[in-house]
Amino acid sequence: MSLPTKRSTCSSASPASTDSSYSSPPPMKKAKNGLHTPSSQPNAADKVGFPMEDDATPAAANLSRKKATLPQPSKKLVIKLNKAKPSLPTNFEEITWEKLQSAIRAIFLKKPVSFDLERLYQAVDNLCLHKLEGKLYERIEKECEEHISAALQSLVGQDTDLSVFLSLVENCWQDFCDQMLMIRSIALSLDRKYVIQNPNVRSLWEMGLQLFRKHLALSPEVEQRTVTALLRMIEKERLAEAVNRTLLSHLLKMFTSLGIYTESFEKHFLECTSEFYAAEGMKYMQQYDVAEYLKHVEGRLHEENERCILYIDAGTRKPLIATIEKQLLERHILAVIDKGFSPLMDGRRTEDLQRMYTLFSRVNALESLRQALSSYIRKTGHKIVMDEEKDKDMVQSLLDFKASLDIVWEESFCKNESFGNTIKDSFEHLINLRQNRRAELIAKFLDEKLRAGNKGTSEEELESTLEKVLVLFRFIQGKDVFEAFYKKDLAKRLLLGKSASIDAEKSMISKLKTECGSQFTNKLEGMFKDIELSKEINESFKQSSQARTKLPSGIEMSVHVLTTGYVLCIKFIQDYTG
């Protein structure tokens, strides 16, 4: 403790006048009764002053040279209590039990308790204090068992309809819960002392649940009728009838609290669910088209999931949903595909196809769907490719077909990589059914799009078309055939000035170079160099004196030259001279 900042005098004053904050506790002396009492003599330390520099006196200086008395150690005050545990009055245990028994009976009979609950609580606490709690626990258990047994027996033989019977069971359970909580509040000391000290002894609440479970099992009629009524009520709700969901929730929580939910209810519930949806699946597959059926399945899954949220135990959700998926989906996978996949694809019904994809993924049936897609592409594409009468429109038909498949792949099949590869493989098969003819037709299609006479097409649209055709080009196995036809058509366009856009021509060459390499496009690029050189020569000739003197007036001459190796010259001459 720090010293005070200022003190006016320093003297050997009596202890009463000395600042208490600077004095040691007075020594204790032992009295005759064994207790310690404070000594009447002041501590020597109380007589020692602490001079300050500003008002020190010679007397104070002399005192400071005196030998200070050391403070003596403090002693503790010890008080010994020899009070013994108070003894209980005679017959206290029996009197207390009579009162408790009367209170318990009043609680179970829904009558007012004639004793003060606080006094009853204190009486139970006193019995626990005197180690009499074991017998008290047994008595309470026996009394509760009598009333619980009687309550459940009252439900036997009830000639009422199932909904009324369920209400009676709910009332019985709710009364039991309220009564056990009241009894527990009175005998709380048993839980806090006796039960905690004895691990093998149940709490009062657990004891009550065990008794209820025991006597419910001894009344199989009540349990079986309750389960039957619950299952019928759930079936009614599945058939779109209104039911009391609160009642369902309370009774299923009762089964859960009693620890008999899985054995007594869930097993029968899943069996009934399987039978219900097996029959419904067979019926609806015959009555509905595939799109409507899939919507129905999706709705049923949503309903059952909501049912688990509202009153079915959360642990039942997984086996419940699996049961529905098995009966409504797994058993009908092939029927759904055979009956509905092609119509949905033909109609470009992406939303319904997405629903099919999502539902099939739940039951690991995507492989069946992928195979159906492959079969559909080959079957539909075969009609396009093999119809020689429609060769003129074949490339455009393939482009439209491929575009529709890409939309379905993106919007319905979630860009599944396996499905994307299936589309590519199937198209490669189609393109090469008439390999050389397909290559020729694709080259002719490009020639048509790149000709100057193709009016009404913007540069953006033309570029998009070139990109789409390039997709078909990738599937061609005999690319040398395509090169021959494309090179001949390009020469015609360049020599006759029929090209719609030199930029578009060069763009296509660049795309082909990216796909096949520079060796594939060397000759094509050489044509452009020859045309550029021809233009330069023509311009030089027009500026020359020979052009002015030798050409008749009004006549213009333009000459374009392509290297012989770049084109099939003989065939070209025949086309343009014959």
UniProtKB/TrEMBL annotation:
Biased composition (Low complexity): 8-23
GO MF assignments: ubiquitin protein ligase binding
Statement: the UniProt record of this protein carries the keyword DNA-binding: no
Keywords annotated in UniProt: Isopeptide bond, Ubl conjugation, Ubl conjugation pathway
Statement: the UniProt record of this protein carries the keyword Zinc: no
Region (Disordered), start-end ranges: 1-55
GO biological-process terms attached to the record: ubiquitin-dependent protein catabolic process
InterPro entries: Cullin, Cullin_homology, Cullin_homology_sf, Cullin_N, Cullin_repeat-like_dom_sf
Boundaries of every Cullin family profile domain copy: 437-566
Pathway: Protein modification; protein ubiquitination
Family indicated by similarity: Belongs to the cullin family.
Record-given protein name: Cullin family profile domain-containing protein
Biological source species: Eutrema salsugineum (Saltwater cress)
Source organism phylogeny: Eukaryota, Viridiplantae, Streptophyta, Embryophyta, Tracheophyta
